[in-house]
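Standup notes
- DV: blocked on the single-chain target, sequence here:
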Amino acid sequence: MKTILFAVAAAGLFATPALADAAAQITIAKNHAGMAAKATDITMVLKHHHHAVNCLVGPAGAGFDAAAGNPCGAAGTGAIPETTDASAKAKLQATADAAKAGLASTDLAAAQKAAQATADAL
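- DV (later): unblocked, structure below
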């Protein structure tokens, strides 16, 4: 009986970090999108906004740019790949797709607006 209880408890320990990792990556992405929206220099807007994209898609995802930096590197492999709920995954993917489009902007106000939209979506 002790073995069964230990096995169940151990399974719970191993299942929890994956859920926590996705949630942590979403939080980090939201924070960086917010920093991007408030940045007053286009370079910093795009850098922090790309951090948000990197946290969402993960190193193996479309749009990931290692040169931009990955503040979620220690938290997991991307919020999208680690999210198991189909509806939540679709919402995150739509947010990432919109964010990637916002990275193309060279206008400070437009880039800030795109970053704020990402933060709001998260």
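- Follow-up: Confidence is low (pLDDT under 50) at residues 1-20.
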